[in-house]
Amino acid sequence: MHAESAVVTPGEHAQHVHTMIVNDYESWHPKSQTGFLRRNNKTDNSSNKSKPLQGYYKATIKHGGGGLVMWACSWNKISCGWVDEFCQTLSKEAEELLSKFFPEKIEQLQMLLKTSFNCDDLASLKAPLDIPIPDPAKEEEKRKKKEEKDAKEGKKDKDSDKEDEDAGPPCGPIYSNERVESLLQEVKPEIQTLKEKLNTVSMWVQLQIPRIEDGNNFGVAVQEKVFELLTSTRTKIEAIQTQISKYYSERGDAVAKASKQPHVGDYRQLVHELDQYQYCELRLHILDIRNTYAVLFDIINKNYDKIKRPRGDGKALIY
Q: From which residue to which does the signal peptide run (predicted)?
């Protein structure tokens, strides 16, 4: 925060002031009568160089006696230079994505579909479940002994049931399907990369939107359509992440049921079916990601001129 003041010569009114000199080295121009000033440049006395420093600063007007008008200026600099630099850097990055990254990514994902995600025999995805199937006769004998023991100790049925629920499965730890897990580790980075690149391209399209005016807005409508496509695509990609989380939840429930009721074969088969289904979904996710890059590359290049110059007259952008 910085605060100084500048005095206008007597008899001069605020609305007629176009330039004020503060400390003899800062040039100021009123942006509007709402009390905002814009600094154009400042001379650095240490280096004797003139540096353009853009920004808006808050000002208030005080009326002195005898018609003297004083502008008491206090400002909190909002650097427009940094914003301009950010916009230029982002635009350059987005155009490089469209010209280089998207085509390379399409080729990379196509190769991934031919290698890691090329499984003709879904039965090969079956992961072993180390859950022993109990012998009915031994289980019955074990149950009777437990009931006799509980009767001697005076335990109630509710206490016994609670102990059964808290007891772990009659086997060791049950691990995830290693093959499906390895494929998931390949898909997750692709999802995150696509989301980040979509964010960059969406911001680039928004920065091309010109000042709002009447007429000649066909190019602006094209920009809006492309932006809508980018937004809907992002929503679709986020749904993929939700599906992956759902897979872990459903598989965990199926494994828990299979371990608690090992004599029920359907629970075991459910685990294998979920693994096969998830593989098919992961392959479709890679297809969707590849197609997303291809569609965006195609539609943006077809409408590149309208996106960059929506009115075709070179008017300054609103940003």
A: none
The span from the CA of 238 to the CA of 285, in Å, is 11
Could you give the maximum distance between any two Cα atoms of the chain, in Å? 111
- 8 Å CB contact between 204 and 230: no
Instruction: List pLDDT tens digits, range 196-249.
Output: 999 999 999 999 988 888 777 888 899 999 999 999 999 999 999 999 999 999
End-to-end Cα distance, the chain = 25
Q: With a cut of 90, say whether residue 25 has pLDDT above it.
A: no
Q: What are phi and psi of 27, to 5 degrees?
A: -100, 130
Query: Binning pLDDT at 50, 70 and 90, where does residue 60 land?
Result: very low
Amino acid identity, position 264: V
Spell out the SS3 assignment of 245-301.
Answer: HHHHHHHHHHHHHHHHCCCCHHHHHHHHHHHHHHHHHHHHHHHHHHHHHHHHHHHHH
Residues of the chain with CATH 1.20.120.180: 84-131+174-308
Angle at 126 between CA 121 and CA 127, to 5 degrees: 150
Round to whole Å and give the CA distance between 167 and 98. 57
pLDDT higher than 80, residue 90 = yes
Quick one: fold of 84-131+174-308? Four Helix Bundle (Hemerythrin (Met), subunit A) (1.20.120)
What Rg value do the Cα atoms of the chain yield, rounded?
A: 35
Residue 165 confidence class, pLDDT cut points 50, 70, 90: low
